[in-house]
Structures are given as structure tokens and as C-alpha cells.
Specification:
The chain is of the alpha/beta class and 239 residues long. It has a single domain, classed as NAD(P)-binding Rossmann-like Domain (Rossmann fold, 3-Layer(aba) Sandwich), CATH 3.40.50. It has 7 helices and 7 strands; from the N terminus they run E-H-E-H-E-H-E-H-E-H-E-H-H-E. Helix 1 runs parallel beside helix 2 and helix 1 crosses helix 7. The protein is globular, with a radius of gyration of 17 Å. The structure holds NADP nicotinamide-adenine-dinucleotide phosphate (NAP). The site of NADP nicotinamide-adenine-dinucleotide phosphate (NAP) has 33 residues, from helix 1, strand 2, helix 4 and helix 6.
Length: 239
């Protein structure tokens, strides 16, 4: 599928996997709307993308865990882009600790960002795709959305929810030619992984955000008659 001159919104587009996806999409000629809380990250990336690739880049500093902010950001980006061919629900947070030890506020923030944020953004973007009768939605879930592990109760609950939401939405909108995909990376060498204390090991062998971005691009480039339902991507030989 030809991506050039398409339009994409990426949540968490300021760093990590979202930034890597923004770079690859811009290189392919896709115009972008980027959402994150830090406007400094977004402004720096907009500068880089417009000078390197000449694509249009619009930014919205917003906290997707807040319904009104998420909706306002999506509406303004769709209006500036003029259409929406791709939505990448990537923004997410992680924190690990036993269920007994973690504070309810920490648990709530993970669910509110990873689950409710994904829902608010998708709900705001969907009318445009339904009107177009086309579009691709990629939700960045995790291996934590496929299996539970000790200290991962909040993060696993959030990513299992993303997997369920993705599959249910897929069944709702595939008849409108909208493709909905869940990707489930294992640990990726990003700030999120480092801050959450995940084992990175030998950085050269470790999965990089660009590797996940390559999977995103491969998923999007499939002919419109097919879509990837779910796909995992793992480090081959972590140390
Ligand atoms: N790294 C891994 O090992 C790994 C593995 C599997 C899946 N994932 C998933 O991949 C996604 C991206 O993670 P990453 O590793 O690339 O993380 P990252 O480097 O920490 O980047 C996360 C991005 O999301 C944004 N973000 C976080 N909370 C937000 C909020 N409430 N509203 C708006 N933007 C928000 C951050 O910007 P601001 O802080 O400026 O808002 C940042 O741009 C997440 O959903 C994560 O769960 C990561």
C-alpha cells in the first residue's frame, strides 16, 4: 500500500517507539500529527522532520489520560491534516511492583493512560476514518498483554485491556475498511524500559525502537485488503 501523502497521528510521538515511527513515516512522505505531554520533545522532532523530509508536521501537547485534552488534541490535528489515514496509539507508561505494594494512584494512572487514553484518542479519531471508509489503527500493546508476570499487575491489566479493545474494535470496523492491529513487543531499549528497571543488557543485541517502527511500516504497507491482527516482535538473543 502506498503511504506517500497519507496522514498519521502518533500518540507518544516525542520519544522512543513513537519518535522512531514518526521518522520512518515522514521519510515515506506521510504528514504527521504528534501528541505528547512534553512540547519540547515535539518541537525538536517537528524541526528535524520538516528539515529532513519536508513533510507537514503538526504537534499537540496534551495528556491523553484526560478525556478533554485527548479529544481536543485529536480534533485539532485531524483538522490541520485534513484527513486521517493512520492512527498509532503508542503513548503509554509503565511501573512495576507487587499488587500489594503498588499505590492505588499508581495503578489508576497506568490504567487511565494506557487504557482510557487509548480509548479517548481512538474515539475522537474514529468518525473521520468511518466517514472516509478507510484507515489503519495500530495499538502498541506488549507481551505484557499476552501473559502476566509478578510485579506487572497494573501494566499487564492495562495491556490485556488494550488487546481486548483492539480485537473488539477490529470486529466493529473491518466492514468499513478500517484495519485495526495490536503489536506486542517484548522489551525495547527506550526510556520507559530503563526507568521501569527492565533488563536491557547488551544494547547492541537489544531490540531498538527503530525495529518496532520497521514492523509498524511493514504492517501499514500491506495491501488494504489484508491486515495484521496481532504480531509480536522479540529480541533474538538478549544477554
Ligand atoms: N519499551 C518497552 O520495553 C516496551 C515494550 C512493549 C511495549 N511498549 C509500549 O510501547 C509504547 C511506547 O513506549 P516507549 O518504550 O517508546 O516509551 P517512552 O520512550 O517512554 O515514550 C513514551 C511516549 O509516550 C508519551 N506519553 C506518556 N504518557 C502520556 C500521556 N499521558 N499523554 C500523552 N503522551 C504520553 C511520552 O511523552 P511525554 O512524557 O512527554 O508525555 C513519550 O513521548 C508504550 O505503550 C509502551 O507500553 C514498550
Amino acid at each position: 500500500m502506498e503511504l506517500r501523502n497519507g496522514t498519521a497521528i502518533i500518540t507518544g510521538g516525542g520519544k522512543g517507539i513513537g519518535k522512531a515511527a514518526a521518522l520512518k513515516l515522514a521519510e515515506s512522505g506521510v504528514h504527521l500529527g504528534l501528541i505528547a505531554r512534553s512540547s519540547a520533545d515535539l518541537e525538536a522532532l517537528r524541526e528535524q522532520l520538516t528539515s529532513e523530509f519536508g513533510t507537514k508536521v503538526f504537534i499537540a501537547s496534551a495528556d491523553i489520560s484526560k478525556k478533554d485534552e485527548a479529544e481536543k488534541a485529536v480534533r485539532s490535528l485531524v483538522e490541520q491534516l485534513g484527513s486521517l489515514s493512520i492512527l498509532i496509539n503508542n503513548a503509554g507508561i509503565a511501573k512495576f511492583g507487587t499488587l500489594a505494594e503498588m499505590e492505588p494512584t499508581e495503578w489508576e494512572q497506568i490504567i487511565q493512560t494506557n487504557v482510557m487514553g487509548t480509548y479517548y484518542v481512538t474515539r475522537a479519531a474514529l468518525p473521520t476514518m468511518l466517514e472516509q471508509q478507510s484507515g489503519s489503527i495500530i495499538n502498541i500493546a506488549s507481551t505484557a498483554g499476552e501473559r502476566g508476570f509478578a510485579t506487572g499487575s497494573a501494566y499487564c491489566a492495562s495491556k490485556f485491556a488494550v488487546m481486548g479493545m483492539t480485537e473488539a474494535l477490529m470486529q466493529e470496523v473491518r466492514k468499513s475498511n478500517i484495519r485495526v492491529t495490536a503489536l506486542t513487543p517484548s522489551t525495547v531499549n527506550t526510556e520507559l524500559a530503563v526507568k521501569a528497571g527492565l533488563k536491557i543488557g547488551d544494547e547492541d543485541r537489544m531490540m531498538q525502537p527503530e525495529d518496532v517502527a520497521d514492523l509498524i511500516m511493514a504492517t501499514l504497507q500491506l495491501p488494504p485488503r489484508v491486515f495484521v491482527k496481532t504480531a509480536g516482535i522479540w529480541t533474538t538473543n538478549p544477554q
